[in-house]
Amino acid sequence: MKKFAALLLVLVMVLSFAACGGKADPETTAATKENISAEPVSEEASSEAVSENASEAASETASEAVSADASEPVSDPKAPVAAPANNAEIVALYNSAVNSAVDAKAGFNKARYVDNESFDLDLALKAFKSLVEKFVGIGAENRYTESVAQGQWDSDPKRAYLRKSTIGEADITGAACAQEGNFYVVTLNIKNGNSHGGKSNKFTNAPVDKCGICVGNEDKGYYDHKTGEVIYAAIGGTYAGADIQESYNNAKAVAKIDAATGKLVSLTVTYKISVAIDIGIGDGTATGNSHIEYTNVKY
Questions:
Q1: CB 255 within 8 Å of CB 94
Q2: In DSSP terms, which residues pair with 284 in a beta bridge?
Q3: SS3 172
Q4: 254: part of which helix (H) or strand (E)?
Q5: What is the predicted pLDDT for the residue at 38?
Q6: What is the structure's pLDDT at 1?
Q7: How far from 72 is each of 44, 68, 191, CA to CA, in Å?
Q8: In contact, 282 and 239? CB cutoff 8 Å
Q9: Which among 97, 186, 205, 266 is least buried, having the fewest CB atoms inside 10 angstroms?
Q10: 224: closest CA among 293, 121, 156?
């Protein structure tokens, strides 16, 4: 009986151990549940994730937009200069174009010459024909040419090559603007003018001098319009009693202007000049067609 009781006790203990091995350890189970349950995500972490996702989406959208736009032509942000509709607007466009070249100290090639000349000189002045030609700018030897580099204008303000244009509607008899491809061609018909040079009487009424050509009241070879005052300044020291009457007609300024920028491309000024000289011992007149040309304008 003792042996049987001992064997029965051993069997009970074995069964007890088996039963205990089949149940999960409470601590282990709790720990496992904690690991399985996801920890709550903080608001900051959630916002960062959302922001990052939004940035990526925006980046992808922008990339797609850039890719789409790249295939389309990009328009020039500069609007073309509007075509002028009347004389006031034509004159304003002309002034703006000439003055833009002056402000930029543009480079250009310049030429001035007189053709179709004629003389009516008495015996005394015939001896000074070459001098008269020089006054008026007649003849190949008196042809003026100069090449001016952009920004390299002469430091002498009198020798500005091209002057600011101040011409107005009151100085013209008419104006026209024609479009030729990418350019406007502006034509100003300028009123006639005259001047007088003498010891005690000097005056100048010359609307053409306002259109941008180089002018002044001294004896300078680079002046484009030789007024009576300029010619007297040249000979007054020798012929103090000289009297000079100068006049011009059929004056015209033609400017070629870039329609996209409003900048001057070329400028031609023409007029017929007449000079009557009286030096006391003889008199006479000289006439010719004066041409002043600015070409190959560079900024």
A1: yes
A2: 121, 277
A3: strand
A4: strand 243-258
A5: 41
A6: 52
A7: 42, 7, 51
A8: no
A9: 205
A10: 293
pLDDT (average), residues 141-163:
84
pTM as predicted: 0.71
Phi-psi region of 98 (alpha: psi -120 to 50; beta: other; left: phi over 0): alpha
Quickly count: other Cβ atoms within 10 Å of residue 88's Cβ.
Answer: 12
Look up residue 186 and give its two tokens. Answer: 């502006």
| Whether the predicted pLDDT of 126 surpasses 90 | no
- 62, pLDDT greater than 80: no
Whether the Cβ atoms of residue 141 and residue 129 lie closer than 8 Å to each other? no
φ, ψ of residue 101 in degrees (nearest 5): -70, -40
Comparing 58-62, 129-133, 181-185, 270-274, the range with the smallest average pLDDT is 58-62
C-alpha radius of gyration, the chain, whole number: 47
Choose between 30 and 129: higher pLDDT.
129
Q: What is the DSSP string of 49-83?
A: HHHHHHHHHHHHHHHHHHHHHHTSPPPPSSPPPPP
The whole-angstrom separation of Cα 29 and Cα 16 is: 21
Which amino acid is located at 65 in the chain? A
